[in-house]
Amino acid sequence: MRYTFTLAALAAATAFAAPAAAQTVSSSDTIKAQALIIQPATLQRVDDLSFGTIIATPTAVGSVTIDADDGSRAFTGTGLTLSSTDVGGRGRFLGNGNLNVDVPLNVSFPAYLSNVADRTKTVTFTGKLDAAANDLLVNTGATGVFYVGVGGKIDIAAGQMPGLYDGEVTLTAQFQ
Fold first, then answer.
1. Is 145 domain-assigned?
2. Which of 10, 26, 30, 36 is spaced 20 to 30 A from 105 at the CA atom?
3. How far apart are CA 82 and CA 79, in angstroms?
4. How far apart, in whole angstroms, are the C-alpha atoms of residue 140 and residue 98?
5. Contacting residues for 171 by C-beta, under 8 A, at least 6 apart
6. Is residue 153 a part of any domain in this protein?
7. What domain range includes position 70?
8. pLDDT at 117 over 90
9. Average pLDDT over residues 85-105
10. How many domains does the chain have?
11. What CA dihedral angle connects 61, 83, 114 and 60, to 10 degrees?
């Protein structure tokens, strides 16, 4: 009797263990494959200018700057903390023109970025183009392709209303 019970217990344990060993696990995910195709004599937005997430105490006063050349972010003032998970970055335009020609640029920067929930609440904005375009003239080089980086500075006042602030920078290239 004892022998039969032990044999039955061993058979039951083996029966339950076998399916677990044969079990397979599958996992999958996706990425986007993208291509930007432009025509000659065109200008196209590649990246928006973003100051990232800024944590500001109610008494915070200072400014946040995005470098137009390398996209780095810095701040001055008190009561501000820059989020390390949303660091922002410079804006970029891509242009394509004739080879080795100078292309004049016109840029329009807003004086303020407005809170999207209450457009009467603003932060002062000062825009800047990268060094290659800061004289409002870029050379297309041997490929005909050029990039223009856009950076800037926002000033945060004490009691600044929380929320997303935005504005539009317009760049015009005059292809010849």
1. yes
2. 36
3. 10
4. 7
5. 43, 93, 105, 106, 107, 108, 148, 150
6. yes
7. 42-173
8. yes
9. 95
10. 1
11. -10
CB 137, CB 131: distance < 8 Å: no
CA–CA dist 147, 149 (Å, integer): 7
The SS3 of residue 12 is: helix
Residue 116 lies in a domain: yes
Residues sharing a CB contact under 8 Å with residue 54, sequence separation 6 or more, in sequence order: 64, 75, 80, 81, 82, 83, 156
Residue 40: band (very low, low, confident or very high) from pLDDT cuts 50, 70, 90: confident
DSSP 162: P
pLDDT higher for 16 or 146?
146
**Residue 9 is assigned to a structural domain of this protein:** no
How long, in residues, is the chain?
176
Residue 59 has a CB neighbour count (10 Å cut-off) of 9
pLDDT at 34: 84
Q: pTM for the complete prediction?
A: 0.78
- Which of the four pLDDT bands, split at 50, 70 and 90, describes residue 169? very high
Cβ atoms of 150 and 94 closer than 8 Å: no
